[in-house]
């Protein structure tokens, strides 16, 4: 009789711990963005007896890991849509659409809550209001947020 009670108790404890202990999977691998730099060949041209070297501009392509886009989506939905639209192609109630925002501007706005001074050449703010809440806890996540926003960009 004592053995039966002991076996039943062990069985119940086994079942309890099997179904109540959370299973923790491996941590996701988060890779940093890979920056690829593409240079074109230099060309030499003769200008009135002098040699001038013309170089083409450097094209920098930033590729993001899909894990970053998922992180950016979570942060965008939990934080950014309070002022910006759920669809970053459309203006929000307070904040502008974000699909064409350069990552440098986004980084500065999240860090300081303001546009950089002076503004980058050719950049025109989309709204007259130039202040936003700074989110210093998300500064490291700006590349992920930017990748998510750009992944939703609609072709024109």
Key terms:
156 residues; single chain; alpha+beta; 4 helices; rod-shaped; two-stranded antiparallel ribbon; two-stranded antiparallel sheet
What profile does the largest beta sheet have? 2 strands, antiparallel
The helix content, as a percent range, equals: 25-40%
The dominant shape is rod-shaped
Number of strands: 4
**Lateral arrangement of strands in the main beta sheet:** 1-4
Q: Roughly how many Å is the radius of gyration?
A: 26 Å
Distance between the termini: 79 Å
Which runs of at least 5 residues are low in confidence (pLDDT < 50)?
none
Structural class: alpha+beta
Secondary-structure element pattern, one letter each: HEEEEHHH
How many helix segments? Answer: 4
Proportion of beta-strand residues:
5-15%
Mean pLDDT over the residues: 77
Would you write up a description of this structure?
By secondary structure, this protein is of the alpha+beta class. 33% of the residues lie in helices and 13% in strands. The protein contains four helices and four strands, in the order αββββααα. The chain has helices spanning 2-20, 66-78, 103-112, 142-151, and strands at 34-38, 43-47, 50-54, 59-63. Strands 1-4 form a two-stranded antiparallel sheet. A two-stranded antiparallel ribbon has the order 2-3. α2 crosses α4 (142-151). The longest helix is centred in the first third of the chain and has 19 residues, at 2-20. The protein is rod-shaped, with a radius of gyration of 26 Å. The protein starts with a helix and ends in a 5-residue tail after the last helix. 13% of the residues are buried. The mean pLDDT is 77.
């Amino acid at each position: 009789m004592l053995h039966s009670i002991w076996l039943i108790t062990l069985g119940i404890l086994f079942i309890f711990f099997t179904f109540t202990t959370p299973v923790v999977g491996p941590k996701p691998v988060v890779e940093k963005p890979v920056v690829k730099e593409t240079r074109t060949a230099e060309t030499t041209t003769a200008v009135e007896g002098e040699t001038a070297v013309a170089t083409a501009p450097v094209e920098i392509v930033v590729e993001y890991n899909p894990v970053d886009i998922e992180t950016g989506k979570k942060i965008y939905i939990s934080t950014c849509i309070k002022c910006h639209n759920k669809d970053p192609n459309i203006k929000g109630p307070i904040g502008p659409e974000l699909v064409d925002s350069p990552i440098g501007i986004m980084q500065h706005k999240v860090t300081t809550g303001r546009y950089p001074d002076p503004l980058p050449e050719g950049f025109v703010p989309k709204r007259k209001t130039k202040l936003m809440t700074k989110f210093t806890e998300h500064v490291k996540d700006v590349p992920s947020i930017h990748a998510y926003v750009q992944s939703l960009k609609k072709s024109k």
